[in-house]
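Morning!

As promised:
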Amino acid sequence: MPAVVVARKHRIKRAVRQAEGVHGGRTMELLAQIGGSAYCIVAFVIGGRLIALSLRTRQLPELLIGVAVLFLAGLGYPLSAVAREVPDLAPWIRGVLGASAGFLAVVGLAANTGFTWILFRREEAWASALLACVGLGAVGLFCAQSAAGGWSRGTLFWGWLPLGITVSYAWGFLECARYHRLLRRRLHLGMADPVVMNRFALYAVATGLAVVTNLVGWVFWRLDLEMLTHPVGSSLLFVLGVTSSALMLLAFLPPRAYLAWVRARAPEAA
Amino acid sequence: MGESAVFDLVSDELEQRSSLSRLEARGTVRLALKEAGLDPGTVTVPQMTVVLRKLLPRELKTRGLKDPQAFCEALLERLSSVKLDAGETETPEAVFERLAPS
Protein backbone atom coordinates (compact mmCIF):
# COMPACT_ATOMS: atom_id res chain seq x y z
CA MET A 1 0.00 0.00 0.00
CA PRO A 2 1.43 3.41 -0.93
CA ALA A 3 2.70 5.52 1.94
CA VAL A 4 0.31 8.37 1.11
CA VAL A 5 -2.72 6.09 1.47
CA VAL A 6 -1.42 4.67 4.76
CA ALA A 7 -0.83 8.16 6.13
CA ARG A 8 -4.31 9.22 5.01
CA LYS A 9 -5.89 6.18 6.73
CA HIS A 10 -4.01 7.02 9.94
CA ARG A 11 -5.20 10.63 9.75
CA ILE A 12 -8.81 9.53 9.33
CA LYS A 13 -8.56 7.04 12.22
CA ARG A 14 -7.03 9.73 14.44
CA ALA A 15 -9.77 12.18 13.54
CA VAL A 16 -12.47 9.57 14.30
CA ARG A 17 -10.85 8.73 17.65
CA GLN A 18 -10.59 12.44 18.48
CA ALA A 19 -14.23 13.02 17.54
CA GLU A 20 -15.27 10.05 19.68
CA GLY A 21 -13.18 11.39 22.56
CA VAL A 22 -14.76 14.83 22.33
CA HIS A 23 -18.20 13.27 22.12
CA GLY A 24 -17.50 11.00 25.12
CA GLY A 25 -16.07 13.95 27.06
CA ARG A 26 -19.16 16.04 26.33
CA THR A 27 -21.41 13.18 27.44
CA MET A 28 -19.49 12.84 30.71
CA GLU A 29 -19.63 16.59 31.24
CA LEU A 30 -23.37 16.55 30.62
CA LEU A 31 -23.83 13.72 33.12
CA ALA A 32 -21.81 15.62 35.72
CA GLN A 33 -23.91 18.73 35.09
CA ILE A 34 -27.09 16.68 35.52
CA GLY A 35 -25.83 15.29 38.86
CA GLY A 36 -24.70 18.70 40.14
CA SER A 37 -27.82 20.53 38.93
CA ALA A 38 -30.15 17.90 40.40
CA TYR A 39 -28.56 18.34 43.80
CA CYS A 40 -28.68 22.16 43.61
CA ILE A 41 -32.38 22.14 42.61
CA VAL A 42 -33.32 19.65 45.33
CA ALA A 43 -31.32 21.66 47.89
CA PHE A 44 -33.03 24.88 46.76
CA VAL A 45 -36.51 23.37 47.19
CA ILE A 46 -35.82 21.57 50.48
CA GLY A 47 -33.85 24.45 51.99
CA GLY A 48 -36.64 26.91 51.14
CA ARG A 49 -39.24 24.54 52.54
CA LEU A 50 -37.34 24.12 55.82
CA ILE A 51 -36.94 27.88 56.23
CA ALA A 52 -40.69 28.29 55.61
CA LEU A 53 -41.27 25.62 58.27
CA SER A 54 -39.09 27.56 60.73
CA LEU A 55 -41.20 30.67 60.14
CA ARG A 56 -44.29 28.69 61.19
CA THR A 57 -42.78 26.84 64.17
CA ARG A 58 -40.40 29.66 65.21
CA GLN A 59 -37.80 27.03 66.10
CA LEU A 60 -34.09 27.40 65.55
CA PRO A 61 -33.09 23.86 64.38
CA GLU A 62 -35.23 23.94 61.23
CA LEU A 63 -34.00 27.46 60.45
CA LEU A 64 -30.38 26.32 60.78
CA ILE A 65 -30.71 23.24 58.58
CA GLY A 66 -32.83 25.19 56.07
CA VAL A 67 -30.24 27.95 55.79
CA ALA A 68 -27.45 25.36 55.55
CA VAL A 69 -29.08 23.44 52.70
CA LEU A 70 -30.31 26.50 50.80
CA PHE A 71 -27.27 28.75 51.20
CA LEU A 72 -24.54 26.16 50.69
CA ALA A 73 -25.88 23.93 47.92
CA GLY A 74 -29.05 25.62 46.68
CA LEU A 75 -27.49 29.06 46.04
CA GLY A 76 -23.78 29.08 46.91
CA TYR A 77 -22.56 26.31 44.59
CA PRO A 78 -24.47 27.48 41.47
CA LEU A 79 -23.37 31.11 41.99
CA SER A 80 -19.72 30.15 42.42
CA ALA A 81 -19.94 27.91 39.32
CA VAL A 82 -21.33 30.82 37.26
CA ALA A 83 -18.61 33.15 38.59
CA ARG A 84 -15.88 30.65 37.65
CA GLU A 85 -17.19 29.10 34.46
CA VAL A 86 -18.84 31.95 32.52
CA PRO A 87 -15.98 34.04 31.12
CA ASP A 88 -18.34 36.13 28.94
CA LEU A 89 -19.63 37.98 32.00
CA ALA A 90 -18.00 41.29 32.94
CA PRO A 91 -15.20 40.75 35.48
CA TRP A 92 -16.92 42.88 38.13
CA ILE A 93 -20.13 40.82 37.80
CA ARG A 94 -18.13 37.62 38.19
CA GLY A 95 -16.45 39.16 41.25
CA VAL A 96 -19.79 40.11 42.82
CA LEU A 97 -21.25 36.66 42.10
CA GLY A 98 -18.16 34.95 43.52
CA ALA A 99 -18.18 37.08 46.69
CA SER A 100 -21.93 36.51 47.14
CA ALA A 101 -21.40 32.75 46.78
CA GLY A 102 -18.60 32.97 49.35
CA PHE A 103 -20.78 34.88 51.80
CA LEU A 104 -23.64 32.36 51.38
CA ALA A 105 -21.21 29.49 51.90
CA VAL A 106 -19.87 31.03 55.14
CA VAL A 107 -23.39 31.48 56.54
CA GLY A 108 -24.46 28.04 55.30
CA LEU A 109 -21.43 26.32 56.80
CA ALA A 110 -21.93 28.03 60.17
CA ALA A 111 -25.63 27.07 60.10
CA ASN A 112 -24.84 23.45 59.23
CA THR A 113 -22.37 23.16 62.09
CA GLY A 114 -24.78 25.00 64.39
CA PHE A 115 -27.53 22.49 63.52
CA THR A 116 -25.40 19.54 64.63
CA TRP A 117 -24.29 21.42 67.74
CA ILE A 118 -27.78 22.47 68.86
CA LEU A 119 -29.25 19.05 68.17
CA PHE A 120 -26.69 16.82 69.83
CA ARG A 121 -24.00 18.64 71.85
CA ARG A 122 -25.16 22.07 72.94
CA GLU A 123 -23.93 21.54 76.50
CA GLU A 124 -20.47 20.26 75.68
CA ALA A 125 -17.48 22.58 75.66
CA TRP A 126 -15.55 20.76 72.91
CA ALA A 127 -18.56 20.99 70.59
CA SER A 128 -18.95 24.72 71.21
CA ALA A 129 -15.22 25.14 70.52
CA LEU A 130 -15.55 23.17 67.25
CA LEU A 131 -18.52 25.31 66.19
CA ALA A 132 -16.52 28.47 66.94
CA CYS A 133 -13.46 27.17 65.04
CA VAL A 134 -15.45 26.28 61.92
CA GLY A 135 -17.37 29.59 61.97
CA LEU A 136 -14.36 31.79 62.65
CA GLY A 137 -12.23 29.86 60.14
CA ALA A 138 -14.82 30.42 57.41
CA VAL A 139 -15.13 34.13 58.25
CA GLY A 140 -11.33 34.39 58.27
CA LEU A 141 -11.11 32.79 54.82
CA PHE A 142 -13.78 35.15 53.50
CA CYS A 143 -11.89 38.18 54.83
CA ALA A 144 -8.56 36.88 53.47
CA GLN A 145 -10.05 36.32 49.99
CA SER A 146 -11.69 39.76 50.06
CA ALA A 147 -8.37 41.35 50.97
CA ALA A 148 -6.55 39.40 48.24
CA GLY A 149 -9.24 40.11 45.59
CA GLY A 150 -10.02 37.78 42.69
CA TRP A 151 -13.43 36.62 43.88
CA SER A 152 -14.38 35.48 40.35
CA ARG A 153 -12.27 32.36 40.99
CA GLY A 154 -11.89 32.70 44.75
CA THR A 155 -8.84 30.44 44.70
CA LEU A 156 -7.93 30.92 48.36
CA PHE A 157 -11.50 30.68 49.67
CA TRP A 158 -12.70 27.70 47.62
CA GLY A 159 -9.32 26.05 47.97
CA TRP A 160 -9.66 25.71 51.74
CA LEU A 161 -13.36 26.05 52.61
CA PRO A 162 -14.12 22.42 51.56
CA LEU A 163 -12.02 21.28 54.51
CA GLY A 164 -14.32 23.20 56.87
CA ILE A 165 -17.36 21.83 55.05
CA THR A 166 -15.93 18.32 55.33
CA VAL A 167 -15.41 18.69 59.10
CA SER A 168 -18.94 20.04 59.51
CA TYR A 169 -20.63 17.33 57.44
CA ALA A 170 -18.46 14.57 58.95
CA TRP A 171 -19.56 15.65 62.43
CA GLY A 172 -23.21 15.64 61.32
CA PHE A 173 -22.72 12.22 59.73
CA LEU A 174 -21.21 10.69 62.88
CA GLU A 175 -23.88 12.13 65.19
CA CYS A 176 -26.79 11.07 62.96
CA ALA A 177 -25.34 7.59 62.44
CA ARG A 178 -24.89 7.19 66.21
CA TYR A 179 -28.41 8.43 66.89
CA HIS A 180 -29.82 6.10 64.26
CA ARG A 181 -28.18 3.20 66.08
CA LEU A 182 -29.76 4.31 69.37
CA LEU A 183 -33.18 4.62 67.74
CA ARG A 184 -32.89 1.10 66.30
CA ARG A 185 -32.58 -0.24 69.83
CA ARG A 186 -35.52 1.89 71.00
CA LEU A 187 -37.61 0.74 68.07
CA HIS A 188 -37.50 -2.84 69.34
CA LEU A 189 -39.02 -1.62 72.62
CA GLY A 190 -41.68 0.49 70.90
CA MET A 191 -39.98 3.77 71.85
CA ALA A 192 -39.14 5.08 68.38
CA ASP A 193 -40.92 5.93 65.16
CA PRO A 194 -39.55 3.92 62.20
CA VAL A 195 -40.04 6.88 59.85
CA VAL A 196 -38.01 9.22 62.06
CA MET A 197 -35.36 6.53 62.51
CA ASN A 198 -35.19 6.11 58.74
CA ARG A 199 -34.89 9.90 58.33
CA PHE A 200 -31.77 9.86 60.52
CA ALA A 201 -30.31 7.11 58.32
CA LEU A 202 -31.09 8.95 55.08
CA TYR A 203 -29.65 12.23 56.38
CA ALA A 204 -26.57 10.41 57.72
CA VAL A 205 -25.86 8.81 54.34
CA ALA A 206 -26.53 12.11 52.52
CA THR A 207 -24.06 13.96 54.78
CA GLY A 208 -21.60 11.08 54.36
CA LEU A 209 -21.82 11.52 50.59
CA ALA A 210 -21.34 15.27 51.03
CA VAL A 211 -18.08 14.51 52.87
CA VAL A 212 -16.92 12.30 49.98
CA THR A 213 -17.95 14.90 47.36
CA ASN A 214 -16.15 17.70 49.18
CA LEU A 215 -12.98 15.69 49.68
CA VAL A 216 -12.91 14.54 46.04
CA GLY A 217 -13.62 18.10 44.85
CA TRP A 218 -10.85 19.42 47.07
CA VAL A 219 -8.35 16.86 45.71
CA PHE A 220 -9.27 17.84 42.12
CA TRP A 221 -8.88 21.51 43.04
CA ARG A 222 -5.44 20.95 44.57
CA LEU A 223 -4.35 18.95 41.50
CA ASP A 224 -5.67 21.76 39.28
CA LEU A 225 -8.01 19.34 37.47
CA GLU A 226 -11.50 20.26 36.27
CA MET A 227 -13.94 17.77 37.78
CA LEU A 228 -16.63 18.45 35.17
CA THR A 229 -14.49 17.34 32.24
CA HIS A 230 -12.39 14.67 33.94
CA PRO A 231 -13.77 11.14 33.29
CA VAL A 232 -13.47 10.07 36.94
CA GLY A 233 -14.57 13.44 38.32
CA SER A 234 -17.62 13.74 36.09
CA SER A 235 -18.76 10.15 36.80
CA LEU A 236 -18.41 10.77 40.52
CA LEU A 237 -20.29 14.06 40.28
CA PHE A 238 -23.14 12.32 38.50
CA VAL A 239 -23.41 9.40 40.91
CA LEU A 240 -22.94 11.48 44.07
CA GLY A 241 -25.26 14.26 42.89
CA VAL A 242 -28.12 11.98 41.85
CA THR A 243 -27.81 9.73 44.93
CA SER A 244 -27.65 12.68 47.35
CA SER A 245 -30.68 14.27 45.67
CA ALA A 246 -32.69 11.06 46.03
CA LEU A 247 -31.69 10.69 49.70
CA MET A 248 -32.58 14.31 50.52
CA LEU A 249 -35.95 13.98 48.79
CA LEU A 250 -36.77 10.78 50.67
CA ALA A 251 -35.68 12.36 53.97
CA PHE A 252 -37.44 15.73 53.67
CA LEU A 253 -40.13 15.32 51.01
CA PRO A 254 -41.01 11.64 51.25
CA PRO A 255 -43.81 10.23 49.10
CA ARG A 256 -46.60 8.56 51.08
CA ALA A 257 -45.82 5.22 49.46
CA TYR A 258 -42.27 5.39 50.78
CA LEU A 259 -43.46 6.20 54.33
CA ALA A 260 -45.89 3.26 54.17
CA TRP A 261 -43.07 1.00 52.97
CA VAL A 262 -40.80 2.10 55.86
CA ARG A 263 -43.56 1.45 58.41
CA ALA A 264 -44.37 -1.93 56.90
CA ARG A 265 -40.72 -3.02 57.15
CA ALA A 266 -40.34 -1.96 60.79
CA PRO A 267 -40.05 -4.82 63.30
CA GLU A 268 -42.78 -5.34 65.87
CA ALA A 269 -42.01 -3.94 69.33
CA ALA A 270 -41.03 -6.54 71.93
CA MET B 1 -23.38 15.98 80.68
CA GLY B 2 -24.91 15.06 84.10
CA GLU B 3 -27.55 12.43 84.75
CA SER B 4 -31.24 13.21 84.58
CA ALA B 5 -33.47 13.41 87.66
CA VAL B 6 -35.25 10.24 86.49
CA PHE B 7 -32.00 8.30 86.36
CA ASP B 8 -30.96 9.57 89.82
CA LEU B 9 -34.32 8.68 91.32
CA VAL B 10 -34.42 5.11 90.00
CA SER B 11 -30.75 4.47 90.85
CA ASP B 12 -31.17 5.82 94.40
CA GLU B 13 -34.31 3.75 94.95
CA LEU B 14 -32.57 0.64 93.66
CA GLU B 15 -29.63 1.26 95.99
CA GLN B 16 -31.89 1.76 99.04
CA ARG B 17 -34.20 -1.20 98.35
CA SER B 18 -31.50 -3.73 97.51
CA SER B 19 -28.12 -4.88 98.70
CA LEU B 20 -26.43 -3.24 95.71
CA SER B 21 -23.86 -0.52 96.37
CA ARG B 22 -24.34 2.95 94.89
CA LEU B 23 -21.90 2.16 92.10
CA GLU B 24 -23.56 -1.19 91.34
CA ALA B 25 -27.06 0.28 91.37
CA ARG B 26 -26.16 3.12 89.00
CA GLY B 27 -24.18 0.75 86.78
CA THR B 28 -27.12 -1.65 86.56
CA VAL B 29 -29.52 1.10 85.51
CA ARG B 30 -26.93 2.40 83.05
CA LEU B 31 -26.62 -1.02 81.42
CA ALA B 32 -30.39 -1.34 81.04
CA LEU B 33 -30.57 2.14 79.51
CA LYS B 34 -27.72 1.35 77.13
CA GLU B 35 -29.49 -1.75 75.93
CA ALA B 36 -32.56 0.39 75.25
CA GLY B 37 -30.52 2.98 73.33
CA LEU B 38 -31.12 5.64 76.00
CA ASP B 39 -28.87 8.17 77.66
CA PRO B 40 -28.81 8.61 81.48
CA GLY B 41 -28.59 12.36 80.91
CA THR B 42 -31.76 12.68 78.84
CA VAL B 43 -33.97 9.71 79.76
CA THR B 44 -37.59 10.68 80.41
CA VAL B 45 -40.21 9.18 82.72
CA PRO B 46 -42.10 7.35 79.90
CA GLN B 47 -38.82 5.91 78.59
CA MET B 48 -37.72 4.81 82.07
CA THR B 49 -41.13 3.20 82.55
CA VAL B 50 -40.50 0.98 79.50
CA VAL B 51 -37.02 0.12 80.76
CA LEU B 52 -38.38 -0.83 84.20
CA ARG B 53 -41.01 -3.05 82.61
CA LYS B 54 -38.97 -4.70 79.88
CA LEU B 55 -35.25 -4.61 80.64
CA LEU B 56 -34.39 -3.93 84.27
CA PRO B 57 -36.02 -7.14 85.64
CA ARG B 58 -33.57 -9.20 83.57
CA GLU B 59 -30.60 -7.11 84.72
CA LEU B 60 -31.65 -7.50 88.36
CA LYS B 61 -32.12 -11.23 87.94
CA THR B 62 -28.53 -11.62 86.76
CA ARG B 63 -27.46 -9.78 89.93
CA GLY B 64 -29.24 -12.34 92.10
CA LEU B 65 -32.20 -10.22 93.27
CA LYS B 66 -35.23 -12.27 94.33
CA ASP B 67 -38.45 -11.46 92.49
CA PRO B 68 -37.07 -8.66 90.25
CA GLN B 69 -40.48 -8.19 88.63
CA ALA B 70 -42.09 -7.14 91.91
CA PHE B 71 -39.06 -5.04 92.65
CA CYS B 72 -39.49 -3.14 89.38
CA GLU B 73 -43.23 -2.75 89.97
CA ALA B 74 -42.40 -1.01 93.26
CA LEU B 75 -39.94 1.24 91.45
CA LEU B 76 -42.61 2.04 88.86
CA GLU B 77 -45.02 3.01 91.58
CA ARG B 78 -42.41 5.27 93.15
CA LEU B 79 -41.66 6.82 89.75
CA SER B 80 -45.30 7.59 89.09
CA SER B 81 -45.78 9.15 92.53
CA VAL B 82 -43.16 11.89 92.13
CA LYS B 83 -43.30 14.95 89.92
CA LEU B 84 -40.10 15.48 87.99
CA ASP B 85 -39.01 18.35 85.79
CA ALA B 86 -39.64 17.42 82.20
CA GLY B 87 -36.45 19.22 81.15
CA GLU B 88 -36.26 21.94 78.54
CA THR B 89 -33.94 20.28 76.05
CA GLU B 90 -35.63 19.16 72.87
CA THR B 91 -34.62 15.70 71.72
CA PRO B 92 -33.06 15.17 68.26
CA GLU B 93 -35.91 12.85 67.23
CA ALA B 94 -38.50 15.50 68.11
CA VAL B 95 -36.70 17.90 65.74
CA PHE B 96 -36.37 15.31 62.96
CA GLU B 97 -40.03 14.42 63.32
CA ARG B 98 -40.95 18.04 62.58
CA LEU B 99 -38.68 18.38 59.54
CA ALA B 100 -40.88 16.35 57.19
CA PRO B 101 -44.32 14.75 57.06
CA SER B 102 -44.49 11.42 58.86
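The interface with chain A takes residues 1, 35-39, 47, 50-51, 54-55, 89-90, 92-93, 95-102 of chain B (CB under 8 Å).

Hope this helps with the figure draft.
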